[in-house]
Specification:
Blueprint lengths: L3 E11 L4 E12 L4 E5 L6 H8 L7 E10 L2 E2 L5 H4 L7 E4 L3 H4 L6 H12 L4 H14 L5 H4 L9 H13 L5 E5 L7 H18 L2 E5 L3 H7 L2 E6 L2 E7 H6 L4 H8 L49 E3 L2 E3 L4 H4 L11
Parallel strand pairs: 3-8, 3-9, 6-7, 7-8
Antiparallel strand pairs: 1-2, 1-4, 4-5, 9-10, 10-12, 11-12
Helix pairs in contact: 4-5, 5-7, 7-8
Length: 331
């Protein structure tokens, strides 16, 4: 049985003149202790997926269909009061910027103690002991002193370690990490990701890693979902997809990596841009940017089907492998 099972999830935003679809019938499962990456360009629907699971969608966004089963319980059916027993307790989230997560007017100790006492019947003294233990777990030096400090007194890397410690405070079953190293220096990013991987493995915690960095996904996850315009267009084992991508978009993302070009060469960019939610084309949403597009791609929405080592949503996937793309008009 999966720890998390998302089936047919559809998220819409009610705008002034029309309603747009941000997630279009997406489905995936995550087992206990499994690590899954969600990748794609900005606007693909990665963060909306994480927010939907935790019921953090802001108006005018709403879940229009589908189910989110967590440990046998449909999260879409819970009241706000019921959800508070899940969010931050059994499912934790790590956001991009730790300064958004941490309250600037409260000490680290106050925030960690409040988090514990909101979900557990513990004294302040016992809560502080647990907080110190979690800070040690993420290799924070002099943790007793850190409890007395405010977020602005700490470095960016230290703040993100504390955010991870807070996420682990209540021993969650699932962590959703939304671009957890975006705001950090490159030299610190690797340390944070290595720490997160170590903690998930040692505590058997499931992880959803939302990122645009395929290099991080290849090192951190066992399976990955590639999203485009609110749909999952390829899914499978991380190693299989990285080594043999089936969808033209996935191929484009991998080919655009700097290490795929020689020094002095231009990066191999995917032509065009992600469509706006109000202007998603019919058929395959990627067809205006795809070098393999045929007229059918403009009218037929491809469904996920097995090809190679992954499930891929592309009607031309057989022709794509081993052939040369024909020219299309990207205008």
């Amino acid at each position: 049985m999966s720890l998390l099972s998302v089936q047919g999830l559809t998220v819409k935003f009610a705008m002034r003149n029309n309603t747009v679809t941000a997630l279009n019938d997406i489905s995936f499962d995550i087992g206990q202790g499994e690590r899954v990456g969600i990748v794609g360009e900005s606007g693909a629907g990665k963060s909306i997926t994480g927010f939907s699971i935790l019921n953090l969608l802001s108006r005018p966004g709403y879940i229009a269909g589908g189910s989110i089963m967590f440990d046998g319980q449909d999260l879409t059916k819970l009241s706000d009061k019921q959800f508070r027993t899940i969010r931050g307790n059994r499912i934790a989230m790590i956001f991009q910027d730790p300064m958004v997560t941490l309250n600037p007017v409260l000490t680290i100790g106050q925030q960690m103690v409040e988090q514990l006492q909101a979900h557990r019947r513990v004294s302040r003294k016992d809560a502080e002991i647990i907080a110190v233990a979690k800070l040690r777990e993420v290799y924070i030096p002099a943790p007793e002193e850190r409890l007395k400090q405010y977020p602005h007194e700490l470095s960016g890397g230290m703040r993100q370690r504390i955010v991870i410690a807070i996420a682990l405070l209540l021993d969650p079953q699932l962590i959703i990490a939304d671009e957890p190293t975006t705001a950090l220096d490159v030299t610190i990013q690797a340390d944070i990701m290595e720490l997160l991987l170590e903690l998930c493995e040692s505590n058997n915690v499931s992880l959803i890693l939302i990122t645009h960095d395929l290099g991080v996904v290849s090192q951190m996850t066992q399976r990955m979902l590639v999203m485009y315009a609110g749909r999952i267009i390829e899914t499978g084992g991380t190693r299989e997809i990285i080594n043999d991508p089936q969808h033209p978009y996935t191929q484009g993302l991998i080919n655009a990596l700097p290490q795929q070009t020689l020094p002095g060469e231009k990066l191999r960019q995917i032509p065009g841009n992600m469509p706006a939610l109000s202007a998603i084309p019919p058929g395959c949403p990627f067809h205006p940017r795809c070098g393999y597009a045929v007229p059918t791609c403009r009218t037929v929405r491809p469904e996920l089907r097995r090809h190679g080592g992954s499930d891929v949503a592309c009607i031309e996937v057989e022709r794509l492998h081993g052939t040369t793309p024909h020219k299309v008009d990207y205008a």
